[in-house]
Every structure is written in C-alpha cells, then in structure tokens.
Amino acid sequence: MANFSISGNIVDVLHKTIFPGTVFINNGRIQAIAYGEAQPNAQKNGHSEDQYILPGFIDAHVHIESSMLVPTEFARLATVHGTVAAVSDPHEIANVLGLEGIRFMLANAAQTPFTIVFGAPSCVPATRFETAGAELTAKEIRELFEQDGISYLSEVMNVPGVLNRTTEVMEKIRIAQELGYPVDGHAPGLCGEAARHYADAKITTDHECCTLAEALDKLAVGMKIIIREGSAAKNFETLHSLIDSHPDRCMFCSDDKHPDDLVKGHINELVRRAVALGHDVMNVLQIACVNPVSHYKMNVGLLQVGDPADLIVVKNLQDFTVVSTYCKGILAAKSGQAMLPSVPVTPINHFLAAQKQVADFRIPANGSTVRAIAAVDGQLTTTEKHLPAHIQNGEVTSDIEHDVLKITVVNRYKNTPPAVGFIQNFGLKRGAIASSVAHDSHNIVAVGTTDEELCAAVNAVIEAQGGLAVVDNTTIQVLNLPVAGLMSDADGYMVAKQYAHMDSWAKRLGSQLLAPFMTLSFMALLVIPDLKLSDRGLFSGKDFQFVSLWIA
C-alpha cells in the first residue's frame, strides 16, 4: 500500500480546531500530522493548503438493498460524495433469504475498503401478518453476533412486542445486551410514557421521528436521534434544530436511498444544508462524522494519529465540494469520479410465484364504501380513507377521476391469490407500475388503472424473477433485480440511469409523487401506520390487525 501525504487546512472535529498542516499516511493509517505550513512533498498529491482535510461522512442507518446496488457498488457511488462508511441493516435481503442473504452482503462488502457495519435484523419477518421468505430466531441472532462479525441489533420494529415485553423480542435484545452490542430502534409516533417504556428496554436510537416534539420526547428518555433524509422519507427540515441543541445525541442517515438520488448526493447534502442554515460547522461535522463511530464502535478513522486513513478533501466548508475521498488510505473517489473497481457478483434469489390471470385482480361489489390507503408524499406513513366504491358491471374498479386506484400485493414465495385493495394520491392516469421491492417481506406490490395493466405489471416482475416494471397499454419496461429481487448485479451508474428512466415513465403516467416506486415499496410495510396492504389483506398499523375492505 502506497505511502503519501496530503496538505491543507486540517479540520480536527474531535478537538474543534482547524489548522494548516500535512497528514502523512503509511500502510493505510495516519502515521503523523505535521502542524503549520504545508510540507513541500505534499504538493505532489495535487492538493493545496487552501483546501480542507476532514474525517469522511458516515450514513448512520441505511438499507443498502434500497439503493438496488450490492454493497461494493453502493460504496463506489457513495464515496464520490465523501462518504467513507455506513451502518447498514440487511433486513431487506434477510426477509428474502435469511442467513444466506446476510452472508452474501458480508462477503460482498469485504471486497471494498469502504467500511460497512452490519446489524443483525431483529424483525424477520417484520410481522406475523405477512408472508416472508425467511425467519431469524434468537438463536440465529446470537450466531450472527458470535460467528459473523455483526456489530449491533438492527431496528426493533415490533413496537407492541417491546411495550408488552414479548418473550421472543426481548430475548433478541437481551442477547445483544449480553454481548455488548447497541440496539437500534424504530418507533414512529411514539411519545411520552410509551417512548420511555420503549427506551427502558435498552433501545438506544430512533430514525423515525416525524415531528420535533416526538424527537425531543425520545431524547428526554435517553435515546439518540438519527436525522433522516432519504428518497421517500424526509425529516431534515423538521429536525435540524437538534443539530445545535443536541450535537452529541444526533446522527445523519439516508435510510432508503434510490440509485438516481445516490448519484446526486448523500450525507454531504445534509452537511451542506445544515451549514447553510447557520448551524455551527463543528456540530454538523460531529453529527456527520464522529457520533456514529463512537455509538457503533466503528473501526473508522477520525483524522487522528494512528487512525485508519478514512478522510476527505473538500474545497471549502460551505458547499463541501469533494475533491477526493480515501478509505483505509485507498483513493476511492477523485473529482467526482469513482475510483474503486466494480466487483463481479453471482446473484442469489428466492422467487417461486407463478404468472397471474386478470381475473385474479377482480373485486366483486359487496357494498358501497371501501376502506382505502391514502399515501403521503415524502413520508412512509399513510392514512385511512372511506370512499365511495366505483362499481361497473358488478365489480369495483379503479376510479381514475378521483385518484382511487387498485393496489395489489402478490406473494412471491408461494402461489396464493393476490390481495387487492385501493389507494389514493398515487395519481396515475393510465397504466400500472409494479415492484418486488416491497418492504419488508418483499412480495410483489403494484398499483394500476386497469386490471389488465395491473396483471401485466405483476407478471413482468414474476417473469424477471424480481425487478421494477412499468406498463403503458401494451408497452412494458422492466429493470431487472436478479439479486434477491432487490438489487442489480450491474454497474451502479447504469442502474441509476435505468431507474431514473423508470421513475420518469411512472411520472409520465400521471404520478405526482416525488418517488413513485419508493412510495409504492412502503405500502406493504405493516409496522408503519396507518393502513397498509400485505399479501394476506388490508392491515391497520394503528390497531395492529387485519381490517375489511368494506365499510359496513
């Protein structure tokens, strides 16, 4: 490994100082830091003393699978924006393939110098009200900790299980505590005494806060807040005041970042926006660089002598334009170009669904009012609406005029009848879209204006054994996702371009949603209120039980 040095204004976030100097790197670690003027030999690296050297950014909570890229490709795109590490919950692939899927992620991630700390998924399946492809028991959670190098217990989404101290849930938390690993939370809307009871179970973080009051309640009971800004859920504007009020108790994350958005930016966007809003730059960088390292005990450098050389060079501390990114002393990105190589991938999958018939999506009229999901742009939550049924020839059909469309979830692990309901605010005027990225069990979810196009979109995903599909009359486009039906095995930039094309087409069909496919993927996520659809039927996340399509 090459030895080299970099000169510039060194940003020591731990000690909150900035000084001119040179960083000397030997065998992937920081050997020395010289204070004062730049050293002559440092100029050979193309950096000048008026640039800034600082620790790299860290995504404190992400599902890499949501980028539709394998870990090594995610790293290639993320390092361009100054990200050097990520805290990743692999529960998407775990819901499809169990331990085999997690070990695929670990093996692929081991082939990049970008640091990825993986968690043991605590809720596989997420609930007992849907069909997943695998189950992780407490015994397997212990195996992941003791044999596979897993570093924390991933988000505990079974909030009722925690509040009621259910044996199965608490045993997984107990194992993590016994072995000294942190436990991540996932408790949207939980406040007051309920938040205290949840935190008392030794759950340390939450990334689901949608209001400042909720975040402050959780901070008050000892939890840390991960400020999220992803492709669908965006909470930065609501929570950014925490940056200066609680700089030691916050982190930044993307949670779910689609590939086209990852090409545009990552944690650097939150850093730039926070500084532009007037927040103290050292507080911002503590949140973006330091807090995840200390909380998750990450082997990531913080620009101190002896640390791994995980650092970035930026033009200034206003827009944070990244000149270069180093991971373990390896040049990972330079001047907006990824320098890490792509890694060959052998896909693994679990896909057994057979082609469906148009008749499978029919809904015979059995009343005059239906219970419908109301999607909320930019949020994972939904509301419940009671709407007039649009009845034609004895069947309930999509009502395009009032934006009430059919939505379906089709079991991909066995052949069962599709679950069919209705959704508002999706906005399609024609056609249908479908996806095998459907949190958390990753069955097939689709929304459409006609039964014929809905069926065609579902069948396109089944034929591809996983992917995204857009149907416009007789025209069908598919983005193949051969790795677990969640990720591509192709170059990340090509996948981003293909995804952007699919997203654009969905919007040409009429959707006004910021990210139609991302929003669609969360319509089957039962643990986030209120009304969702699983492969077994309509489900109230508020009451945590199935509900009828029909309003009596």
Could you characterize what this model shows?
This protein is α/β, with parallel strands linked by helices and 552 residues long. It folds into 2 domains: 57-300, Metal-dependent hydrolases (TIM Barrel); 358-546, no CATH class. It has 16 helices and 29 strands. Strands 3-2-1-4-13-14-15-16 form an 8-stranded mixed sheet. Strands 18-17-22-21-24-23-25-26 form an 8-stranded mixed sheet, sandwiched between helices. A hairpin with a 4-residue loop joins strand 1 (4-12) and strand 2. The longest helix has 17 residues, at 492-508.
Secondary structure blueprint with pairings:
Blueprint: E1 4-12, E2 17-26, E3 29-35, E4 52-55, E5 57-62, H1 71-79, E6 83-88, H2 91-97, H3 99-109, E7 115-120, H4 138-147, E8 152-156, H5 159-163, H6 167-179, E9 183-185, H7 192-199, E10 205-206, H8 212-220, E11 224-228, H9 236-239, H10 242-245, E12 250-253, H11 259-264, H12 267-276, H13 281-296, E13 311-314, E14 322-327, E15 330-334, E16 337-338, E17 369-375, E18 382-388, E19 391-392, E20 395-396, E21 404-410, E22 419-424, E23 432-435, E24 444-448, H14 451-464, E25 467-472, E26 475-480, H15 492-508, H16 516-521, E27 531-534, E28 537-540, E29 545-546
Parallel strand pairs: 1-4, 5-6, 6-7, 7-8, 8-9, 10-11, 11-12, 17-22
Antiparallel strand pairs: 1-2, 2-3, 4-13, 13-14, 14-15, 15-16, 17-18, 19-20, 21-22, 21-24, 23-24, 23-25, 25-26, 27-28, 28-29
Helix pairs in contact: 2-3, 4-6, 7-8, 12-13
Low-confidence stretches: 38-47
Named at the architecture level, the CATH assignment of the largest domain is Alpha-Beta Barrel
Q: What's the β-strand tally? A: 29
Helical fraction: 25-40%
Query: Mean pLDDT, rounded to whole units?
Result: 95
CATH class of the largest domain: Alpha Beta
Over all CA atoms, what is the radius of gyration? 24 Å
CATH topology heading of the largest domain: TIM Barrel
Order the strands across the largest sheet as they lie in space. 3-2-1-4-13-14-15-16
